[in-house]
Amino acid sequence: MKVIRTEAEWNPIWAAIFKEGKQLGFVPTMGALHQGHLDLVSQSTASMDYTVVSIFVNPTQFNSSEDFQNYPQTLEADLAKLKAARADYVFVPSVATLYPQPTHLRFDFGDLEHVLEGAFRPGHFNGVGLVVSKLFHLIQPSRAFFGQKDLQQVAVIKRLVQDLSFGLSIEVVPTRREKDGLAMSSRNMRLNPEERQQALLLYQQLSQAKERLLAGESWKQINSDTAAAFATAPTCKLEYFALLHPETFEIFDTFTQEDARSLCIAAYVGPVRLIDNLPIIA
Ligand code: PAF
């Protein structure tokens, strides 16, 4: 496994892969890797000739400087995990490499950025759009792998790829959960034992809501029960709980079984903001 830090180092490697006519898979990450990331890597290594993983904590996608400062960074451990997962290349650029000058370009993802993560984290998807576009241009993969846990990010990236005609395909990999259901996230490392226990509320509410919706209960009632469950949880603060279309992110007040529907949730558990989602009808 080779660690690459600059575009100049990467370009001849890419040219050789291209010349061989081989397929390059790409897994963009912000490091602090867990099994969910490694699932993306193994999907890539299983289907592509070469796999490159990027590790870059992207400053432009954080709408809070405290969140950026506290984002876990575990480079040595990450590199060991990627080596064991048989990644071929790891791209670890500096901020100056990806942002040699301040960026003036602004993305507008339409309706997608006015709801849920877009509404609660202003500027977040602009930063994701910027860094993912830069990485796609630099790395030039044939396929890129993203986790379903960041469902709205997946919708944004699919729009980016389509609207800007990036010649690559996007593969979405199911959310990896701990045994008790908590969705794996780099942010889970910041939870103390009590908060880790409280964090189960997100998945519990998602799965109960799914069951109740499929049993014919009203979304309005389920939604208000979830708000009540969070209101009484000592360290949790619910930001949103929504029923929506998983690609357009159109939000619904009532549930019908006719089309794809997902539930999305975001909440603070202590100081840590967590998100999760569950497809009801895929
Ligand atoms: O999902 C993430 O870890 C990040 O948003 C991404 C896609 C690597 C862009 O920084």
Q: What key phrases describe this protein's structure?
A:
binds pantoate, globular, Rossmann fold, 3-stranded antiparallel sheet, 11 helices, 282 residues, 6-stranded parallel sheet, Pantoate--beta-alanine Ligase, Chain: A,domain 2, alpha/beta
Q: How would you sum up this structure, described in words?
A:
The structure is a single chain. The chain is α/β, with parallel strands linked by helices. It is 41% helix and 20% strand. It contains 11 helices and 9 strands. The strands form 2 sheets. A 6-stranded parallel sheet has the order 1-4-3-2-5-6, sandwiched between helices. α7 packs across α8 (151-163) and α10 runs antiparallel to α11 (219-232). The longest helix has 16 residues, at 124-139. The chain binds pantoate. Pantoate is lined by residues 28-30, 58, 61, 128, 131-132, 150, 153.
Short description:
The protein is of the alpha/beta class and 282 residues long. The chain is built from eleven helices and nine strands.
Strand content: 15-25%
User: Which sequence of SSEs, written as H and E, runs from N to C?
Assistant: EHEHEHHEHHHEHEHHHEEE
Distance between the termini: 36 Å
- Output the number of helix runs: 11
Q: What's the helical proportion of residues?
A: 40-55%
Shape by Cα distribution: globular
What is the CATH architecture descriptor of the largest domain?
3-Layer(aba) Sandwich
Class from secondary-structure proportions: alpha/beta
CATH superfamily of the largest domain: HUPs
List cofactors, ions and other ligands: pantoate
CATH class of the largest domain: Alpha Beta
User: What is the total number of structural domains?
Assistant: 2
Q: What topology, given as strand order, has the largest sheet?
A: 1-4-3-2-5-6
Major beta sheet, specifics? 6 strands, parallel
